[in-house]
Amino acid sequence: QLSSRIRAIPEPAGNAWEIYERAQEMRTEGIDVTMLSIGDHDTITPEPIIAHMAGAARQGNTGYASVPGMAPLRAAIAERATLRTGAAAVAGNVFVTPGGQFALFEALMAVTDPGDKVVMIDPYYATYPITIRAAGAAPVIVKADPDNGFQPDLQDMAAKLPGCRALLLNTPNNPTGAVYSRDTLNAIAELCQAHDVWLISDEVYDGQIWEGEHLSPRGLPGMAERTIVIGSMSKSHIMTGFRLGWVLAPEQVVNAIWELAIATTYGVPGFIQEAACFALTEGDAIEAEATARYRSRRDLAVDVLRGANGLRLSAPQGAMYVMVDIRPTGLSGIAFARKLLEEHHIAVMPGEGFGQAAAGHLRVSLTLEDDALVAALRTLAGLAGA
Ligand code: PLP
């Protein structure tokens, strides 16, 4: 029999991957499917980053690399974190990981014991329940109401947080595009302090802000010592396949993760680290260009979808997705997504894959160039009225 840790891992919610898998299958059958279902870019990593990676490998950086991350990269991440979280960070607060996803897992492994409860907000990034379970902990769900801009229900949180070990937060949010306000974050910070809870703050979309400002709970009074920030190069610098992320945490957590890394990854490849270091220190224009592209696509999507055929939309305040509220059609997200795929060859993610609160929604990734994106969104809106 497999371990209880593995047996506790839940099935992906609501058959969400059915659409994605069917889309892949259709592609192998030669059908031209428009993929708006996953959060990967439609362009490849910018050439200067690739050139830097290849150069580093050719110059010999192909051996075992520094396990916590090479010093200049940790320093560059600390500098970025100081600016973006509003609380001073040093290299010793940074641990480089193979992607933000592994950073999440390591953070949970470092601060939770088997059976501990971890609060997450529904709708949630699809891997959260699996990651919490794989770390041996158990998810506790707090809802974010679609009719309240997908902001977390603070009363529900206040009721459920006592006795929990950690709270997993994601702002800007995937899938909803919600960005949490200062008041919300202050209230959450107070709850974490009152109940002695670790805050794991997933900030992989921290640069993609369309309305308001990104605030990291790490920057709030008394929070730096109980906050673990998850960061990543995937979205900001079009580097999903490089698998480079980080944990930003108090040094005792960084040291714990160092032990875990010795037991698991043994570090991120040196040539990847060098590419990331280059991108962080000299790639501001690359990040600015990628961000501007998603901003203009987000504006286009809001223009096309808002009010079209009675669809409702909470315009995303951040991140690279729009959540379309199809409840007026009476169809579930899965039923609508199936129809859209079979009849129009457009793949989107049914909201049900992100939890109960996202039922009756579709998550559309803004991962297509303007004209094709507008055409796909018009088709989606047309189907809502059919
Ligand atoms: N967290 C959120 C909210 C995400 O949307 C993603 C990727 O889509 C990740 C973490 C993981 O990113 P990566 O492992 O590519 O750094």
Hetero groups in this structure are: pyridoxal-5'-phosphate
CATH class category name of the largest domain: Alpha Beta
Tell how many strands the DSSP assignment holds.
Answer: 14
CATH architecture of the largest domain: 3-Layer(aba) Sandwich
List low-confidence stretches.
none
Strand content: 15-25%
CATH superfamily of the largest domain: Type I PLP-dependent aspartate aminotransferase-like (Major domain)
Indicate the mean pLDDT: 95
Tell me the number of helical segments per DSSP (H or I, 4 or more residues long). Answer: 13
H and E string: HHEHHEHEHEEHEHEEEHHHEEHEEEH
Shape: globular
Brief write-up:
This is aspartate transaminase. With 386 residues, the protein is α/β, with parallel strands linked by helices. The protein has helices at 4-7, 16-28, 47-58, 71-85, 99-111, 128-134, 154-160, 182-194, 251-263, 270-282, 284-305, 333-344, 370-384; strands spanning 34-35, 94-97, 117-122, 138-145, 151-152, 166-170, 198-202, 227-232, 245-248, 312-313, 321-325, 346-347, 349-350, 361-365.
